Amino acid sequence: MNVAIIPARGGSERIPLKNIRDFCGKPMLAWSIESALQSRCFARVIVSTDNEEIADVARHYGAEVPFLRPRLLSDAHTGLEAVLWHGVEWLDAAGMDLNYVCCVFATAPFVTSAALRDGLAALERAPLRQFSLSVTSYPFPVQRAVRMTADGGVQPLYPEFMKTRSQDLEGAFHEAGQFFWARPEALRQRLPVYAPGASVPVVIPRWRVQDIDTMEDWAQAELLFRALRTVSDNANCI
Q1: Among the residues of the chain, which ranges form H helices?
Q2: N or C: more exposed end of the chain, with fewer CB within 10 A?
Q3: What confidence score (pLDDT) does residue 237 get?
């Protein structure tokens, strides 16, 4: 079977209880749950949380919360690998026969059921890979990045590229923060997603990606989300 695990701890520091804060009419977490359910990829959609309020919201929107994550795995310094390993360990103990596991992020309202299906297909087509990872492109060459200096000035981060034409620079991508699929054994072994040769990319358009760490991010995300839904309603194009 395929299982989705959605990590959603209660201790968000920058935006308290971010996972269940209202986002365009629903708790943020609800959008991830609904996309996972609508994808029809999963026999079970499980939310891993340490918080009863988050657990209640998760159940209301159709996810399972068969366990509460121990406090030891719920602080700001706990790595995602440990949380997923805990979930897989629980599923193994429950006798579940796992084919693939997908980590769907709780704060990813832009994730779509189609992208989740694409991620599964990408990993199925790559038998030597352990993960498929959602990524998106940078809108500007990272080689032209600048940094602020201690004296209030600006310096190029990569001075060797400052005279290179932008069209001659290699394009760069970053993690989209929406999901990744994994073979269960890779999670049991705690293999890093970025281990050499471990992952295949699933490219998400930039206009469907927004990191949400601050209230400014949140406001921008809601504007983009509403705009996309308006376009979708009018043209069925997303």
Answers
A1: 28-39, 52-60, 80-93, 113-124, 184-188, 215-235
A2: N
A3: 45
Are 49 and 58 in contact, with CB atoms under 8 Å apart? yes
Give the contacts of 205 (CB within 8 A, at least 6 positions apart): 136
Q: Which CATH architecture has domain 2-135+175-235?
A: Alpha-Beta Complex (3.90)
Domain boundary assignment for the chain: 2-135+175-235
Report the alpha-carbon distance of residue 98 to residue 142 in Å, rounded: 39
- pLDDT digits 0-9 by tens, 122-167: 999 999 999 999 999 999 999 999 999 999 999 999 999 998 998 8
**Spatial separation of the C-alpha atoms in residues 178 and 56, rounded to whole Å:** 22
For residue 191 the two structure tokens come to 């293999």
Closest to 68 in 3D by CA, of 2, 3, 8, 4: 8
